[in-house]
Amino acid sequence: MYNPQQTKTLQGITEELLKSGKDINESSIEVLRDALRFHEYRYYVQTDPLISDAEYDDLYKQLEKIEKEDPALITVDSPTQRVGKGLIRDFHKVQHLVPMLSLENSYNAADLLDWDRKARELSGLSNIEYCIEPKFDGASVSLVYEDDLLTKGVTRGDGETGDDITPNIKQIRSIPLSASFSKYGIQQIEVRGEVLMNKNNFKKYNDALIEEGLPPLANPRNSAAGSLRIKDTAEVSRRNLEGFLYHVSFINNIDNNHLEPETHSGMLDMLWQLGFRSPKKEMKVVKGIDAVIEHVHAFESKRDDLPYEIDGMVIKVNDIQLQERLGMTSHHPRWAIAFKFKARQATSKLLDVEYQVGRTGAVTPVAKIKPVQVGGVTVSSISIHNEEYIKEKDLKINDTILIERSGDVIPQIVKSFAELRNGTETNIKFLKNCPSCKSALFKTEDESVWRCINLNCEAQVVERIIHFVSKDAMDIRSFGEANVRKFYKMGFLKDIPGIYSIDTDTLRTLEGFGEKSINNLQEAIEKSKTQPLHRLIYALGIRYVGETTAKTLAQSVKNIFDLGAYNLEQLKELSDVGVKVAGSIYEFFQNNDNLQLLKKLDSLGIKMEKQEAALSGGNLTGQTFLFTGTLTQLKRNVAEEAVETNGGKILSGVSSKLNYLVVGEDAGSKLEKAKKIPGIKIISEEEFLKLLPT
Ligand code: IVH
C-alpha cells in the first residue's frame, strides 16, 4: 500500500507530530489521519510496526482531541470512527450482492486429480494455472466498499442473506475503513474473507476466562464467529480480531472502465496494495495439478508454525475469465476446491468424572475419556469446567462425545451425541463437599464454579506451591509439579516457606536424587530469592492477578508490604484494576495468614522490594531498547525485564526514538531498517550484558 518513499515521508511526518507542542489544525488533520492509518497498516497488516504502542496512542489522542473540539471535522473514515457508539440493538438482515457459496472438499491427491481433470475437460486446456492459499479457519464475512468507503460488513448467514455487522467489522484494525478502489476503476466492490482470532490472542482470551472461573471457548473459529455477534462493539474491539480477505465476488466499474486485475493472484495483490490483509504472502501460483499436490502437502507440515489456525488449503483457477467459463454447480464453484488437512477432531467415550481442586479452591470436574489420538497427541482426560457447561453440552457418563484439539490449545469437548444413547448413560453428579478436605463447597451468585473456601485444604496448598515455583512465577527450575507433589506426600514440604528450608539430607535418601540434581535444586531455590518483585506478587497466586496486573502492582510500590496500605479506591485507580480485581487484592493483603506468609518469606531472605535501580533511576534510565533475532544467553522476556528494572524502556518497533537495537542470531528486517537510521546503536547480546549492572 505504501511505497518506500511514502513510508519515509509518513515516518518523517510521524516524528514531527510526536514532537510536543505541535499545533494540529483543520488543514493538517488529514495528515495526522494518514499517519495513523499508515501505522495501523504497519502494525495489523504488515505486522511490522515502526512506532511503539505509546507513540501510536499519543497520535490517536491528538486526533481525538481536535475532533472533540470541532466535531464538524470528523470524517466517516477517520481512525477514531472505529470506536463503536454504545450497543448494537439488532443485526438487520442484508442480501449479499452475490450468494456466498461454499467450496467442494477434497482430502487426497486422487480427489485433486479428479477435480483438475474435469476442469481441463470443460475448458479444453491441457494445463491450468492455479493459485493456492491457506484455508483460514474462522468466520466468513462479506464486505462492501462504495466510492472507496467501507459501507457494509455482513455475516455469511444462509448464503443469500446475512446479518449486518458493520459496527463490529470496523473494530478489526486490519480492515481499512476506506481504500482507493477508484484507482482501479471500481465504484462498488464486494470482498469476501475470514475473520479470525490468532492463536496467541485466543490463548490469552481463554486464560482470562479460566481465571474468572468461566469455561474457555473450544477453538479460535468459535471465538471469531461468536465475537462478530456481540452487541457491545467495545468488547469486540478488545478481542483483537483479524481479517484476511481472499476473494472478490462483485465489481461495479466506473464508466465501464475495467482497470482491475485479470487473475485471482492479481486481485490478492490489488487488495494488499490497497491496505488489506490478503494472503498475498502466503499464496503460491503454479502450473498444473502435480505442483498443487506437492505444495499442499508441504504446507500441511508447516501448519503449526502459523500464528493462526488453518484447516486446509484452497486451490483456485487463477485466470478470472476461465473461472467464469467454468461456472458453478448448484452448490459450489467449479473453479475452486478446498483441500482439507487431517482432522483434529475425534470421537471417544466419556467414562467417568473426577474432581480437581485448584489453587484458588475452584473445584473443576474433569472427564476421564477412552484414550484417543487427536492431532498427534493422546487425550485421556478433559476439563469440563462447571455445571453450566455440562448442561449446555448435555454430557452424561457413557456418552459418545466429539473432541477437538486446535493447534496447541488444550483439547475440548465439542458436543455429545444424544442420538447414540442406549440407556446405559448416567447423569454427572455434582459435589457438595471438597474432594480433598471434605469441607462444604460454596458458589456465589455471579460465578459458575463451586469453591472450597478452606485455605488450609491440602489440595489447594499443593497447587499454590506448584504455582509459586512455576516458570512464570519464581521460576524454581527442577522443582516442578511432580517434585512438589512427591515432597508434599512424603511430608517434608508443607507450605511455600518450606521450599526454602527443604532438608537436603532427606532428599539424598530418595531415589533419583544424586548430588548433581540436589545442587541444581539448591541453586535454583537460592536464585529465586532475588526474583523481581512482580514475579513474587504473581507467585502468590492472588485471584485475578495475572502477570500484567502483578507488574502494575510492583510498579506502584517500593515494597510488597506497602500493598497492605492500599484501600479499594486506591487499588481501582491503578491501570487495568477493576472492582473485582481490586477486591481480591484488598482481601489478600488484609488477611493475617497471608501477611504471616509474607513475613516468613522476608525472614528467609526473599527480596520483598522493587530493585533499587528502577526506583532511583538505573544505569539505563531514559534509554530505549528493542531486541531482534534469537538471544542465546538470556530469554527475551528476561532481557526485557532487565532493561525495565534498570530504568530503560522497550519499544515495539525500529524508529528514530530507538537508542539500542540488540541483535541476536538470525536477525532480519529490523536490523536492516535500523542500519538506515543514524543514531541507533546496534549491539550484540554480549555488549548488552555489559551495559547491565554487575
Ligand atoms: S474462497 C466462491 N478462499 O472456506 C469461493 N474460502 O469451506 C469463495 N475459506 O466459504 C470462498 N479460507 O468461508 C475461499 N482462502 C480461502 C478461504 C475460504 C477459508 C472458507 C470460506 C468458504 C469456506 C468453504
What do these coordinates show?
The structure is a single chain. The chain is an alpha+beta fold and 694 residues long. The protein is built from 25 helices and 22 strands. Strand 13 and strand 14 form a beta hairpin. Helix 2 packs antiparallel against helix 3 (53-69) and helix 17 crosses helix 18. It is globular and about 85 Å long. Bound molecules: 2-(butylsulfanyl)adenosine (IVH).
Quick recap of the structure?
The chain is of the alpha+beta class. It has 25 helices and 22 strands. The model has no long low-confidence stretch (mean pLDDT 90).
Secondary structure blueprint with pairings:
Elements: H1 4-18, H2 29-45, H3 53-69, E1 93-95, E2 104-106, H4 109-123, E3 129-136, E4 139-146, E5 149-155, E6 161-163, H5 166-169, E7 186-196, H6 199-211, H7 220-228, H8 233-238, E8 242-253, H9 264-273, E9 284-287, H10 289-300, E10 310-317, H11 320-326, E11 336-340, E12 345-357, E13 362-374, E14 377-383, H12 387-392, E15 400-404, E16 412-416, E17 441-442, E18 450-452, H13 458-469, H14 480-490, H15 504-508, H16 515-528, H17 533-539, H18 547-556, H19 568-572, H20 579-590, H21 592-603, H22 612-616, E19 624-628, H23 636-645, E20 649-650, E21 660-663, H24 669-676, E22 681-684, H25 685-691
Parallel strand pairs: 2-11, 19-20, 19-21, 21-22
Antiparallel strand pairs: 1-6, 3-9, 3-10, 4-5, 4-7, 7-8, 10-11, 12-13, 12-15, 13-14, 13-18, 15-16, 17-18
